[in-house]
Fold:
Amino acid sequence: MQGLLIPNDPPYGTERCYNGLRLGHALAKGDSATTVTVFLMADAVVAAKSGQKTPDGYHNVERMLKGIIAGKGQILLCGTCLEARGLSDADIMAGARRSSMAELASMTLSAEKVLVF
Structure:
């Protein structure tokens, strides 16, 4: 199965991004035939900011994204959303990459499941 997750909310402050990434991680660890793509949009692009330091006992979305990558998933970021938030490619964690609305449209058409958080 090809799954596409599209978080929009900020990585901290609400649990929507967190819960979407939890599901992405579970899918990536599941069936080896399943591929997971996370396309971060709007404030969710901040989830891929490198060097996050969270208090002990608090979730760290950068680590969660690394888990999806380790499970053969991919992390894509809306380029327009990055620019609107003053983030450059140098600010983004290893393994994630800038993408576009055209690529998201193509992935949406080819995905078997699309979930928006």
